[in-house]
Amino acid sequence: MSLIESEAIEAFERESGTSLSAAESRRNVLTRGVRLNDLIGKEFQVGNVRMLGLRLCEPCTHLVRLTRQPATLRGLVHRGGLYAAILNEGELAVGDPIDGFGHSP
Fold this sequence. Notes:
Blueprint (H helix, E strand, L loop, with lengths): L1 E4 H11 L12 E3 L11 E4 L2 E8 L4 H7 L3 H5 L6 E5 L11 E6 L2
Parallel strand pairs: 1-2
Antiparallel strand pairs: 1-5, 3-4, 3-6, 4-5
């Protein structure tokens, strides 16, 4: 599972003058108000789905090819999102809260 902060996309757009939609970021979940980089090695919950933050989800050259924007790679380094392991079955829904961040497994 991959997540990205809406704040990171907005900052990228301001700084680069390039638009990037959440869909173009190629991440599964768009968040707001949570620093995803702080969740590496931590358990957290989205709705009723428990997750474990594994590592940063850095932008790749494939994203650059899709967006046709070379600035995408440089502009999203260290804020391209988070890869997380899913720890239980469940469903995610738009607007689900992110809870429990900061707890080590």
